[in-house]
Amino acid sequence: MNWLTTPLGAGGAHRVTVPGCRKVLVIVPTMVACTRLLDLLPLLDSDFRVQVYFTQPDPCGETTRLLAAIGALVVPWEMASQHEFDLVLAASFRYVDRAPGPVLVLPHGASAMKSRARARAAGKDARPVHGLDRQQLMRGGKVPASAIVLSHDQELDVLAESCPEALPVAVVAGDVCLDRMRASLPFREHYRRALGVRPDETLVTISSTWTRESTFWQRPELYRELPRTAKVAAVLHPNIWATHSAWQVRSWLAGCDVTVIPPEEGWRATMIASDVVIGDFGSTTQYAAAVGARMLLATCPDVRDGSLADALRRAVPTYDGDLAEAVPVPGFAELVSSRLDRSGAILRAAMYRLLGIPEPVHAVSVSPCSLPRV
């Protein structure tokens, strides 16, 4: 699309059919951020007062294809940063200090706090971090975000200790992704049929985050050696696809009798459809536990005490060849979110407060997760 013909462009004003819209900018530096924020945007549906734009500060092939597939109006970061927006949506703290408008920051995974004990780029002797650290939230002595979304009341307690300056903009809103998954539980059999799972068949999903500590690197034999009596699906972190390419991922898994779930959508439906999930310290594993899947761990590195991954490590056995050892983790959803099934209403209120216009009168609905496309 030629950005000059958009409502922001010099040649676009005379083309506008719906004038006077409040402008919302969605910052998508990664596919993870993009898929996360797509859960937020239905809260703006049906509102003729709002126009949504997307921008990619760091263009990535996988993310660019996803934005094209959904028909997004994408403007270059250089152009977006020269305009003033009424609301900016982000799923990481990157670029927040350079955002051209009031920013609402959503966690880009389960919990606003990290499960890893230390940053990936840091060495083993680095100081532990938890994701709500002062150095991440502040720039130039100020908190640039206008709303920092938290999933749980316990995160508010951590924030009060680590960066009290951010407390006035903190919003405990629960987890919109988990709420969608919970609303989708009645459709489990539909998801199983879409994945080709027979009624008498066991679906085992291998869940992997990224980096060398992940299931994909630490336990590659799982993709070939799980019992042939089970149907096997693979859910891989979008960063694996973005870094190595879709072709390479499928090449590595060639010859494995597994259903590979695309990175943009389908993983949630797959977790709901699963009988057993074998995972690691990543968010997809945690969401599977939160919706009641029977769990096993493939691997778990040094994680932060008290984190969601730590809770799983303490409750879930490591897979050693026996699927029968898989266990559910009762109460895990309450560890992920302290606002279960209320996230949409809280987030919509926060977004419209920043937009400066009244909320729509219709109730917030929760849409079920899409069928997996494999």
Inertia-based shape = globular
* Distance, first to last CA: 29 Å
Q: What is the topology, as strand order, of the major beta sheet?
A: 2-1-3-4-5-6
Low-confidence stretches: none
N to C succession of SSEs: EHEHHEEHEHEHHEHHEHHEHEHEHHH
The count of strands amounts to 11
Please count the helical segments.
16
Helix/strand class: alpha/beta
Helix content: 25-40%
Mean pLDDT: 92
Residue share in β-strands: 5-15%
**Mind telling me the C-alpha Rg?**
21 Å
Biggest β-sheet, characterized? Answer: 6 strands, parallel
Written description of the protein model:
This protein is an alpha/beta fold. The chain contains 16 helices and eleven strands. The protein has helices spanning 31-38, 61-69, 77-80, 134-137, 153-162, 176-184, 188-194, 215-218, 222-225, 238-244, 246-252, 267-273, 283-290, 308-315, 332-336, 343-355; strands at residues 22-27, 50-55, 87-90, 103-105, 147-150, 170-172, 202-208, 230-236, 259-260, 276-279, 294-297. The strands form two sheets. The protein has a six-stranded parallel beta sheet. A five-stranded parallel beta sheet has the order 9-8-7-10-11. It is globular, with a radius of gyration of 21 Å.
In short:
The chain is of the alpha/beta class and 374 residues long. It has helices spanning 31-38, 61-69, 77-80, 134-137, 153-162, 176-184, 188-194, 215-218, 222-225, 238-244, 246-252, 267-273, 283-290, 308-315, 332-336, 343-355, and strands at residues 22-27, 50-55, 87-90, 103-105, 147-150, 170-172, 202-208, 230-236, 259-260, 276-279, 294-297.
